[in-house]
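Cont'd.
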Amino acid sequence: MIPVWAQLAYLLAAICFIVALRGLSSPRTARRGNLIGAAGAIIACVTVVVSSDLDHLLAIVAGVLVGATIGTIGAYRVQMTQMPQMVALFNGVGGGAAAIVALLELSELAANESSSVVELIAVGFTVVVGSLSFAGSVITFLKLQELMPTRPITFPGYPVAYALGLSAALGLGVVLVLYPSIVIGILLALAGAALGVLLVLPVDGADVPIVISLLNAFTGLTVAASGYLLQNTLLLVAGTLVGAAGTLLTLLMANAMGRSVFNILFGALRGGSTLGSTTVSDRPVRSASPEDVAILLGYAERVIIVPGYGLAVAQAQHTLRELVDELQARGITVDYAIHPVAGRMPGHMNVLLAEAQVPYEQLREMDDIDAEFKQADVALVVGANDVVNPAAETSPGAPIYGMPILHANWARQVIFLKRSMRPGFAGIENELLYQPTTTLLFGDAKESLSKVLGGVKDLKVA
Amino acid sequence: MSEQIIWLTFFLLASFVGVEVISKVSSTLHTPLMSGANAIHGVILVGAIVVAGAADSTGELIAGLVAVVLASINMVGGFVVTDRMLIMFSRRRAVEGKPKRAELER
């Protein structure tokens, strides 16, 4: 039995977590919120070590230290562009830990006959969803790290395999409740892992962040279920909080992208539009050299930059900032127009540009800056596509229809820095590319930007 | 009230709190919020410590310790990486805030 003081300490930790989430949802209190959450976690860990009668204490403390060291090093080493996959990994190991905890509880429950049905259901749920979250997170990591193709992967028997995996998990779950044994538990974990892999494979690389958020919510729920198993209110409350908040956050993210969660997970299976996105159009476009672009920029008065996914991939944010500094030195007004879903996850672009030390005032939110495109001489679109695609307003059939866009098309000149003519993740043609006012500069964003930067510097000398 | 109902009550109330506290988040903070929530479920470490401390065979102890290590990575790494992200946000605000303070002194 957990002593009263320890239960009160757990309650305090739970309140810390609630305050932390609340703090994290407002810019002014976000950092403090996160620190309060960390304080809650420390309270919880100290409480469990002091209040419970633990064997193997030394080994456990060593384990915590090893994990904390790995986590800290990982968190400090990671580049901000790679942060989404780091979060995915952290989430995955959490899910894995929950699954192991449930399996160990299962061996306890299987040994004594008095286990209740509800407890066994909680074990089954935690084992399946925990291992699903673990395996799914590993695949998201591999996709984002580009260690495997980011394109949706499907194979002919996919729906059958999925149905098999699902029925195996359900069937094993029923067997587990009727005849609890550790062997069934391990089989259940394998079924969960297979489901996790199958769930993430058909998801497009650009949609993976939403899946990370979903898996995050899943892990939260497994922690809640383990809380029930271990009769620990803190785990139940914290896990439920994350499960609920994570679910809402997943919906908010999908909304901002103008996509439904169902579409993201299963769109590729229905032969949806995401599969078409590798096709390259052969309609004529106007492309230019870096020197031409430098001239367009160098003699403008007002420039608005639309950064996107490609900027993050090319890690070109520092070069972009140098270019902006150079333009400003020439007396040109420059702003960044930040679309809410630009980057690899919502809000990611803000983090990336903050890392490149772009002053806060230059980062303008979509609603704030959109009207100013009408006065802009040049809209410079760096590695973005769908967030400026007029199809979101003009073609009701398009997957992104209804998503708010930045009206780069209102600017006198539009310059696109693009890798190729391949459409964005939504897989639809961007009419803006064929507009007479649009100029394209092909190539890696970082190289293109440094060439343009060189071009602008030469203008100054001349 | 049966014990199961009490747990169900905890679960439902906590779900509502979870949805309510983040319902007004701006899209700028989606990424750090997700990362922070991710760190919070690292509290599974408490569960991992309990089962590792109750292990009565070497196999169970090893499994329990693996869970402890994984959960610590989740929790510590999660909070640290979230803080790294948020420092960047606050550094920007500091740049923005400084001139104002200077003006006040004048």
